[in-house]
């Protein structure tokens, strides 16, 4: 598989180059150049096929021109000693849990795969790749777990003063680890602005091998496409109708990844999501993508520090809203509907849902005009419910138990180093790695 930019269909780069130099010069985002028909791989998988096997098989299938099957299996095996979980709640409703990684956060999957891919590539190429990102806790804890034992990746994490969590002394660069935390005396938006300033210097980031671990990097987003074949392998013997996925919008990375799975020939009929200001619904129920009003060549550059994947979603449909309406079902949800959905999940199925999962289920309950009652629904839960204890206690009166890994990811880490105040200081740190 080769990759191009959302703003330049003539661009053609390899998988390795797309993830190591993850920001196209034209200000777009990397996307697959063409679709691959992976039907023979997808239909072979069943309930006995492990998630790491699915990841390795599909990695081999779509980058076999670049890496041998052994290398592809190595990437997947290194990345995934954990797996999503699928539960059947009733005849047509299934629950896919992505909170099963080491920190209980859905980011664990994409970050672990990206780290394994970069480490494997750099072992062959030589040198070190540097990840530069903003964290308010979750990203840092997940990266710390993913980078332990790696030798060819370092991560510089910029965070607001006092907000760093989930690290241990052994993770720090000066103690032999891979993480260089940088504390900023400012807001999280100030952190994003400073990181964006670095990425504006294209020559610098290319010379230093700097990239990101958020979904601006296609190597972070693409493994999220594995969720959908995994779910299909678990439910295909139980389903005899359409399959729809219901999920929180987030930055739309999981929706885009699901659409890539569909392009690879996975049986999939659409996505039910709560509407947002960016992707809403008109009076007839059709999706409205506000960004489409502005032509690509007149837009500002995509922000690698704080990405949205709506431009990738547009690219899948070539900005064709008529086609989009047959796959994307935004639903306008009120607060009272969210509370009702959370209580319904608990009372009927024993599921403790955070606000995001409850909103997605509220969209399912509000789907009658777009999806038939016979359609199978896979409700996606992104993060462990213990990360939303206050909301769940207030809504259903229960307190979710917190696993040890989640507890560790929340432990405050005191850096005890001077804060930085200028982009020049950040440039200096990156030069020192």
Give your account of this protein's structure.
The chain has 433 residues and is an alpha/beta fold. The protein contains 18 helices and 15 strands. It has helices at residues 15-20, 39-42, 51-62, 69-79, 107-125, 138-147, 188-199, 202-208, 218-221, 227-235, 253-263, 310-317, 321-324, 335-349, 355-365, 389-396, 404-410, 423-432; strands spanning 3-5, 8-13, 30-32, 85-88, 93-97, 129-134, 153-160, 179-184, 210-211, 243-246, 270-274, 279-281, 287-289, 328-331, 376-381. The strands form four sheets. A six-stranded mixed sheet has the order 4-5-15-10-11-14. Strands 8-7-6-9 form a four-stranded parallel sheet, with helices on both faces. The protein is globular and about 60 Å long. The chain starts with a strand and ends with a helix.
Summarize the structure.
Helix content is 39%, strand content 16%.
Relevant terms:
433 residues; alpha/beta
Write the layout of secondary structure elements.
Layout: E1 3-5, E2 8-13, H1 15-20, E3 30-32, H2 39-42, H3 51-62, H4 69-79, E4 85-88, E5 93-97, H5 107-125, E6 129-134, H6 138-147, E7 153-160, E8 179-184, H7 188-199, H8 202-208, E9 210-211, H9 218-221, H10 227-235, E10 243-246, H11 253-263, E11 270-274, E12 279-281, E13 287-289, H12 310-317, H13 321-324, E14 328-331, H14 335-349, H15 355-365, E15 376-381, H16 389-396, H17 404-410, H18 423-432
Parallel strand pairs: 5-15, 6-7, 6-9, 7-8, 10-11, 10-15, 11-14
Antiparallel strand pairs: 1-2, 1-3, 4-5, 12-13
Helix pairs in contact: 3-4, 4-5, 5-6, 11-12, 14-15
């Amino acid at each position: 598989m080769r990759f191009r930019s959302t703003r330049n269909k003539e661009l053609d780069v390899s998988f390795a180059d797309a993830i190591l130099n993850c920001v196209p010069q034209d200000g777009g985002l990397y996307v697959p150049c063409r679709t691959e028909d992976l039907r023979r791989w997808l239909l072979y998988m069943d309930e006995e096929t492990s998630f790491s096997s699915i990841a390795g098989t599909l990695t081999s299938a779509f980058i076999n021109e670049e890496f041998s099957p052994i290398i592809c299996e190595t990437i997947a095996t290194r990345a995934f000693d954990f797996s999503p979980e699928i539960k059947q709640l009733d005849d047509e409703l299934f629950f896919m849990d992505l909170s099963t990684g080491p920190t209980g956060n859905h980011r664990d999957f994409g970050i672990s795969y990206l780290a394994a891919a970069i480490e494997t590539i750099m072992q062959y190429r030589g040198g070190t790749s540097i990840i530069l990102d903003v964290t308010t806790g979750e990203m840092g804890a997940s990266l710390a777990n993913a980078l332990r034992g790696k030798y060819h990746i370092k991560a510089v994490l910029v965070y607001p003063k006092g907000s760093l969590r989930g690290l241990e002394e052994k993770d720090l660069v000066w103690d032999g680890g891979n993480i260089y935390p940088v504390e900023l005396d400012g807001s999280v938006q100030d952190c994003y602005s400073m990181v964006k300033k670095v990425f504006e210097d294209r020559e610098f980031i290319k010379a230093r091998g700097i990239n990101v671990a958020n979904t601006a990097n296609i190597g972070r987003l693409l493994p999220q496409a594995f969720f959908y074949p995994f779910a299909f392998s678990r439910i295909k013997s139980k389903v005899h109708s359409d399959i729809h996925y219901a999920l929180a919008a987030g930055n739309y990375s999981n929706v885009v990844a699901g659409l890539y799975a569909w392009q690879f020939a996975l049986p999939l009929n659409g996505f039910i999501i709560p509407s947002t200001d960016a992707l809403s619904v008109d009076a007839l129920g059709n999706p409205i993508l506000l960004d489409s009003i502005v032509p690509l060549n007149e837009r500002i550059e995509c922000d690698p520090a704080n990405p949205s994947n709506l431009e990738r979603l547009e690219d899948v449909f070539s900005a064709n809203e008529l086609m989009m309406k047959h796959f994307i079902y935004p639903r306008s949800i009120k607060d009272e509907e969210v509370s009702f959905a959370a209580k319904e999940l608990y009372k009927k199925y024993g599921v403790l849902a955070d606000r995001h999962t409850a909103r997605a289920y509220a969209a399912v309950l509000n789907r009658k005009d777009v999806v038939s009652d016979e359609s199978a629904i896979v409700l996606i839960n992104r993060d462990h419910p213990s990360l939303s204890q206050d909301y769940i206690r207030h809504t259903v009166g229960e307190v979710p138990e917190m696993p040890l890994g989640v507890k560790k990811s929340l432990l405050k880490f005191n850096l005890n180093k001077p804060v930085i105040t200028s982009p020049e200081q950040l440039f200096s740190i990156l030069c020192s790695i």
